[in-house]
Design brief:
Helix content is about 40%, strand content about 20%. By secondary structure, it is an alpha+beta fold. It folds into 5 domains: about 5-60, Helix Hairpins (Orthogonal Bundle), CATH 1.10.287.610; about 80-305, DNA ligase/mRNA capping enzyme (D-amino Acid Aminotransferase, Chain A, domain 1); about 310-410, Beta Barrel (OB fold (Dihydrolipoamide Acetyltransferase, E2P)); about 425-580, 5' to 3' exonuclease, C-terminal subdomain (DNA polymerase, domain 1), CATH 1.10.150; about 590-655, Rossmann fold, CATH 3.40.50. Strands 14, 15, 16, 17, 18, 19 and 20 form a 7-stranded antiparallel beta sheet that branches. Strands 2-13-10-3-9 form a 5-stranded mixed beta sheet. The two termini are about 55 Å apart. The structure holds 2-(butylsulfanyl)adenosine.
Length: about 650
């Protein structure tokens, strides 16, 4: 066969494979057997191996998994990937619709979609070719997982029909019930939650894993200049591009129709081959949707109308009291494993001692548990008729189950605390938190290893982690020369960290990821944060005047930094690690908005500025970097001109952001 003939054959094979792929993965039509399709693919691969210069990135052969990547590249989304607000009842849906009717005079139609229970991804096509695929990440910056997404057969590698030069498609990666069951059968029921399997597979550096898991993709949005005016038309267009858009999606003219749709899907849900946790209602008119803008992280023009939490019954096998990193004691029921809402549940929180009293839950009881989406399952009721003889009410311990210190209740709080700062369990929990993903993210350093390190006395506080050597680890269980060396490398690698992660990792009460970001942006340096906290009494306003930080959080930050032990621990730690400088507020660009923007609400514009790392101010001064001017601007516009501050119109602003 000449090269020209090979090229001809390759083109035909690709078209044929592509046609069957589309029929099977997008249209649900199996036109040839899997074995036959495999042999077409095999022929294609063989030819391409002979003439590697004929390989194109969109050839079906390129869905084959590649070598593991050293790490994911970060990708900034063209437009933030938002999330949705939830409603759980028809009443709440009506309230949502009423709020919208106050903001627009248009008569609205609704596009109702199935809410797929998977993970959101974004796909970028340039000149019709898939060039980049990313995870949602924090909504602003995601991870480049192109290679993994390319292994998903329902994602086209190139678009069909006519398309603009750049197209971004958003949708959900998920696993069908059938593929999930098959995976569990292959791997001995290893997986409890299909969503976690999808997310875990997409975030693997080795794309062979994603390829072996058989994931699917359902498109729900497109960011491109499509010249259409409704969301339903966007879906029609997505189908023309070659995507799977859910055939059960439906246009609804009224809330009553939505109600019928919701009830119908709820009934049908068991029969569907994928998991869904509700329906998504969109305002169909794109102009109205855009005009409504967003509040917080969610658009006003769409809402998730969730299905009621699912329930199941099971038996309480034990009640444990766990000690958290702050010393709070949380009772947890250990359950006979049971499947609820697509997940195997073996534990449920009992919240606190009062809740146990209220339910009178006892070991041996049959209970109803309820679970909605990601929320930790709850025990809602005890079936006392099924209670075995001779059970006793559960008595909350009076001493810490880990260190035996007498427990305390703080005024105004329902939780009991272990007041001993040296409590082994707290120490361990603080270390788990410290190395966790959102903190130092030390891979390979899980709870079991931390427990060992603490037990043998190698690690007592954070700084100790950074002086470990391979020789320290080798004698421990689960370690050999290579693995010991590898973990030390991971620890060293993690010792350079961003300020926000560092603040989060300290485990200060009430300081989660969001607050840590706010503090990092505000202070830009951990020493400054510490000074502000320790000098709090003198410098009263400093912490409290920060947006999103109230009394309680400020108080807990002050407590943390004023504690002598923490101070010492921090000093040691700072000598061992390197904190990357983050942008302090002073270097963030300041924006002032004036006049009416046509495609964004004020709040949406502010949100976008903040998410991009900028600051919004209400008055123009020489310190202002940009004034964004909409229709009918006020005196701020004149002042900006006077002071020579850079002026942006809405288009320029959007391009810049
Ligand atoms: S529209 C503003 N439609 O639900 C975000 N989302 O709770 C655009 N999801 O992060 C969402 N199926 O991952 C939309 N048919 C659907 C969906 C859907 C699943 C997910 C999506 C989003 C989450 C929001």
């Amino acid at each position: 066969m000449t090269k020209a003939q090979a090229q001809q054959r390759i083109i035909q094979l690709r078209q044929e494979i592509e046609r069957y792929r589309y029929a099977y993965h997008v249209l649900d039509r199996q036109e040839i057997s899997e074995a036959a399709l495999d042999s077409l693919k095999h022929e294609l691969v063989t030819l391409e191996q002979r003439y590697p210069d004929l390989i194109t990135s969109d050839s079906p052969s390129q869905r084959v998994a590649g070598q593991p990547l050293p790490g994911f590249k970060k990708v900034r989304h063209t437009r933030p990937m938002l999330s949705l607000n939830d409603v759980f009842s028809f009443q709440e849906l009506q309230n949502w619709a009423k709020r919208i009717q106050k903001l627009t005079t248009a008569t609205v139609q609704y596009y109702a979609e199935i809410k797929m229970d998977g993970l959101a991804v974004s796909l970028i096509y340039r000149h019709g070719q898939l060039v980049e695929g990313s995870t949602r990440g924090d909504g602003i910056v995601g991870e480049d997982v192109t290679e993994n997404l390319k292994t998903i057969e329902s994602i086209p590698l190139h678009l069909q029909g006519n398309y603009p030069s750049t197209v971004e498609v958003r949708g959900e990666v998920y696993m069908t019930k059938r593929d999930f069951a098959a995976l569990n059968q292959r791997e001995g029921n290893k997986y409890a939650n299909p969503r976690n399997v999808s997310a875990g597979s997409i975030r693997q550096l080795d794309s062979r894993i994603a390829a072996s898991r058989k994931l699917s993709f359902m498109a729900y949005d497109c960011v491109a200049d499509l010249k259409v005016t409704t969301h339903s038309a966007v879906h029609a267009q997505l189908q023309q591009f070659g995507f799977r858009s859910n055939p059960l999606n439906q246009l609804c003219a009224s809330l009553d129709q939505i109600q019928v749709y919701h009830a119908t899907i709820l009934k049908q849900r068991e029969q569907l081959d994928y998991w869904t946790d509700g329906v998504v209602i969109n305002i169909d008119d794109l102009a109205v949707f855009a005009q409504l803008g967003s509040v917080g992280k969610a658009p006003r023009g769409a809402v998730a109308y969730k299905f009621p939490a699912e329930q199941a019954t099971t038996i309480v096998q034990a009640i444990q009291v766990q000690v958290g990193r702050t010393g709070a004691l949380t009772p947890v029921a250990e359950l006979r494993p049971v499947l609820v809402a697509g997940t195997t549940v073996s534990r449920a929180t009992l919240h606190n001692a009062d809740e146990i009293d209220r339910l009178d839950v006892r070991v041996g009881d049959t209970v109803i548990i309820s679970k909605a989406g990601d929320i930790i399952p709850d025990i809602v009721q005890v079936l006392t008729n099924l209670r075995p003889a001779h059970t006793k009410p559960f008595r909350f311990p009076s001493r810490c189950p880990a260190c035996n210190t007498a427990i305390e209740r703080r005024s105004g709080e329902v939780a009991y605390y272990c007041p001993n700062p040296n409590c082994f369990a707290q120490q361990r929990e603080r270390l788990y938190h410290f190395v966790s993903k959102a903190g130092f993210d030390i891979r390979g350093l899980g709870p079991k290893i931390i427990d060992q390190l603490v037990t043998v006395g190698l690690v007592q506080n954070f700084a100790d982690l950074f002086i470990l050597t391979p020789g320290d680890l080798e004698p421990l269980e689960r370690f050999a020369e290579k693995s010991a060396y590898k973990l030390i490398q991971e620890i060293q690698h993690a010792s350079t960290i961003s300020l926000e992660r560092f603040i989060y990792a300290l485990g200060i009460r009430h300081v989660g990821e969001e607050t840590a970001i706010v503090l990092a942006q505000q202070f830009g340096d951990v020493k400054k944060l510490r000074q502000a906290a320790v000098g709090y009494n003198r410098d009263h306003d400093l912490l409290q005047n920060i947006p999103d930080i109230g009394d309680v959080v400020a108080g807990s930050i002050v407590d943390y930094f004023s504690d002598k032990k923490n101070a010492k621990q921090l000093d040691h730690l700072l000598k061992k690690i390197h904190i990357e400088k983050s942008q302090p507020v002073g270097t963030r660009k300041t924006f002032v908005l004036t006049g009416t923007l046509t495609t964004l609400t004020r709040d949406a514009a502010k949100q976008i500025i903040r998410q991009a790392g900028g600051k919004v101010s209400s008055s123009v001064s020489a310190q202002t970097d940009y004034v964004v001017v909409g229709d009918n601007p006020g005196s701020k516009y004149d002042k900006a001109k006077q002071l020579g501050v850079k002026i942006l119109n809405e288009d320029q602003f959007k391009k810049m952001i």
